[in-house]
Structures are given as structure tokens and as C-alpha cells.
Amino acid sequence: MTNSLRVFIILICSLYFALNATATTIRCTNADYANEKLTFYAFADPISNNNKVAFTLTFNSEGTSEASLQTDAPVFTFSEFGIYRGMLLLEPGKTIDLKLPPLKKKSFADQKNPYFQPISFWIYTNNGEMLNDKISRFEQKLNELTDKDFNALYFQQSETAFNRLKAGINEAFPEKGPESFELHKKLRLQLIEADIFRMSPEDYSAIFQSISPEFWGHQSFKTLFDKTFDKQLSFSAKAIGGAKVSAAVASENINALLDFIAEKYELTGTMADLVLLKMLHDGFYSKEFSVKAIKNMIANKHFTGNRGTKIREAAKNVAAKIVFLEKGSEAPAICLSDINGNKVCTNDSQEKFKYLVFADVETVICQEHLKYLSRLNELFNKNLEIFVVLRNTDRAGIDRFFDENKVPATILIDTENEAIEEYKVRSFPQCFLLNEKHQVVFDDAKAPLNGFEQQFGTWLRNELFMRQRNQSR
């Protein structure tokens, strides 16, 4: 296909989408949220766990906000605000007035807890009859029926109790709803059945075959999909007859793996492609297979040139994810204001190695790690530049700590947590070592008190020796 023809097709597709997509309007008035900003995200794909911004509600001083989204199909979105994770399934062309709960922000303990999980709920609307309202009522009824027969369901694995649960759902929702709702109900019931009866993935995996790609971004799909195919490549390779799976991966035989998926899970076509991408993604992180083989298969035209747009997008996202911040890759530059208000970028200089320390100065453990940077500076000042990227906390506490402790580092304050999110930092401290070209040196750089001195010192001696030897040749 020539470049001009490809561009023409893309323009036609874009025009078609623009003409067929309709605006969904999202509104909310709640004084508790005055001057707050709620960003709603959608899943970038069902595999990579990357999100993309769907829309943002920016509340004025009176607590009123409005946003719009162009879509030609129902789209699932979610937002984490305070202690909540609000979920919203948007319908094309609708105006939705959200009914948010009183805003309750995270406590100090919640903010410091890396395992904190927000309270998930489906957001009600003022109308009360929107798709989201129906899903919310369904979830409430499902929880009610599950709690009522909990022992019979999960301990006795009673088929009678499960049939009673399904009958209760059908009685509460006798009329057929929109396709999105019916699929949500079907997948949620399948998830509960799989949990109750300890079903193997192949016992119910065929349920995915008929699901259209437009629903792959929905929460109910992603939850069941993750549960069904999580780590299945590793599991299958270790099972009886698994040598064939391992051999197929090692030889980069995509067709053999698709045949395996068709036989075991009764899935073919685009859905089988999605399952294989999921298995390759999980197999990469298991470190049980050839990294090169998995990377090559993900980059294969079977995925990158796939007829399915969703498959191409997922392959692109997975390919980018598995090389992000790996050894030898170029790390994103961090440009933030330092403690004195001056704009600083971590790639401003190419003279030294760069040690990035993401920290929360309000935690004692981070304080002790930051204090030890003085020792590291004494040892490696000639070759190492230290950057501390701080989670945005009470400014007075930040100033007080660094006034009392003369930390020999460039102190950057991540006021919007942008660098923390970009580097996918989940707990503090977390560290990265970069070379002069801003490339990652270690897959796992140690924290100051956890052995970085030994890790970097040993590596540095060898690196400088090799460089000197190469220069003398």
C-alpha cells in the first residue's frame, strides 16, 4: 500500500468517525467539589494496564462543572478522587448529571499506604434512569443476593444457591436492557460462577468469543479477562504436554500458539489474537521465557498489521510497556521546579551519571535514605549527580527537613505527581540510575540504604576501566 493511499484511507476513516460520533455531555453540581478537578480515564487496552484521559471535570468556586466527550459507542470511564473510585459508563449523545457522594479525602495514613485501595462504586445520576443507574442497581442487588447466601455459595458450592441467585437477578431485572447492560450482567455472573465452583479458565473461556471489540474497554470485560488468562502462558508451559507451548514460544511460532488457544480455550480470530497478546505480556514479566522471542512476536506483523484496530493498539501499547525504563532504554526527562522555584531538567547536563531518588519526605524511612545521600556524595561526587524527586506534600515540612539536613542533591518537587506517574512509582523511595545520555543503567537500582553504594561502586570501577581501555586502543 502506498503512503498516499494509506493517508487517504486514514482521512476517510477519521471523517467517518467525526460524522458518526455524537457528543455526550457530563455535568455535575456539588458544593463539596468546589475548585476540585476530577480526571476520568478509559482503559487504553485490555492488557497493558495503561490508561488514557477521557475527559476532565473542572469545578468552579460554586461546585459546578461540565465536560463533553465524542463517542459513537458506550465507553467505560473511571476517576479516583479522595477515597473513591467512581465508575461511569457513558452513552453516546446523552446528557448525564452526576450525583457524587460527599467528598472525603484520603487520611494521612491512606496517603502513605502503598496498598491503599479506593472504594469503587458506580456513579448515580440525578435522572435515576440512565445506563449507569441500572448497572449500579444491578451491583447492589448482586451484592445483596451474594451476601444472603454467602456460606452456601462459597463454602458449600451449592448449585441450588447459585440458581437462586440468578433467579433473583432475573426477577429484579426482567426486561432486556441495553446491550452494554446485558453484557455486564452476563460477565459478572460468569465471574461469580467461576469463583464459586473453582472453574478452570477453559471451562468458560468460550464466553469471550462473541464479544465485540467495542466492549473490550468495559470494566466487566477486563476483570473477567484478567482472571481467566492471568499467567496462562506460564501455567500451560508447566502443565502436562507443556513442552509444545514452550517450544512454540522459543521458535516464535505464532500459528502454533493460536492453534493451542483454539484447542484449549475454544477461541479463534480476533479474540484469540487478544488472548495471545495477554499471554505474551504475562510471559514476558514471568521471566520464564526468552525475552527476545516474546518481543519479536509482539512486534510481528500478525499484531502490528492486524485487521483489528484494537489488536494493533494493544500490541503497540504492550510493546512500549515492556521496554519502558528497561536497561539501555532512554528515560524520560524530568523537568520540574526545584526547592527554590527554579526550573530544572534532569537531562540539562551530560557530564555525570544521574541518580534519581523518588521520595516522600513525610515518611521516616525516606528521611533516613535522603540523609544517607551525603555519604554517597562523598564517595561518588566526581561521577554522580543526585536528583531527589519529591512527592508533593506540606511545603513547610519539606523546607524544614532540608533546612535541618543539608542533602547534597538537586531537590525537585512534583506538584502534580506527573513524573511519579510517568515513571510508574508505586512506593517510596524508588530509585533509577541513568548514564550521561539519560539511559537506564540498572533494571533495579538500589535505594541509598539498600546497597546502592556497593551496586554503583562495583559497576563504576568496571565501567571506568573499560572506557579507559577502549580509549587507549
UniProtKB/TrEMBL annotation:
In terms of Gene3D superfamilies, this protein maps to: Glutaredoxin
UniProt entry keywords in alphabetical sequence: Signal
Q: Which InterPro entries match?
A: AhpC/TSA, Thioredoxin-like_sf, Thioredoxin_ResA/DsbE_sf
Pfam hit, one: AhpC-TSA
Has keyword Signal? yes
PANTHER family reported in the protein's UniProt record: PROTEIN DIPZ, THIOL:DISULFIDE INTERCHANGE PROTEIN DSBE
* Protein name per the record: AhpC/TSA family protein
